Amino acid sequence: MKPRSNADCHMTETPPPDTESGIHVRMRAYEEALREASCEIEEKVREVSLLRRIADIAGHVYDIDLFYRFFIDMLLEETHAMNCSLLLLQENASRFVVKAARGRNDDGSL
């Protein structure tokens, strides 16, 4: 089975012409519903996969600053964002502190 791109998940076919029989119209609607459900499942699989990767590094990396860097790298890789920052709420305060930040071109790895 050929893997689908994100573009496939949002493609819709042109509506069937009025000359098609009712069964063809229902089949096209069923195909579209299956396509949408498949795309939703694929998105959930990507999300669970990312959570699994985060759990894996959390269990093997004991230096919190190194964990932050790995976490930022994963988010940049998965989201295709150009920049990523990790801000955590400071204990006993009402402000955020930057724990890690990186852009795609900071070290050329992504």
Summarize the structure.
The protein is of the alpha+beta class and 110 residues long.
Radius of gyration: 21 Å
Number of helical stretches of at least 4 residues:
3
State the end-to-end distance.
28 Å
The order of strands across the largest sheet is 1-2
Fraction in helix: 40-55%
Secondary structure topology:
Layout: H1 6-9, H2 22-60, H3 64-79, E1 83-89, E2 96-103
Antiparallel strand pairs: 1-2
Helix pairs in contact: 2-3
Describe the structure.
The chain is of the alpha+beta class and 110 residues long. It has 2 domains: 60 residues; 48 residues, no CATH class. The protein has a two-stranded antiparallel sheet. Strand 1 and strand 2 form a beta hairpin. Helix 2 packs antiparallel against helix 3. It is elongated. The protein starts with 5 loop residues before the first helix and ends in a 7-residue tail after the last strand. The mean pLDDT is 81.
Please supply descriptive tags for the structure shown above.
single chain; 110 residues; alpha+beta; two-stranded antiparallel sheet; 54% helix; elongated
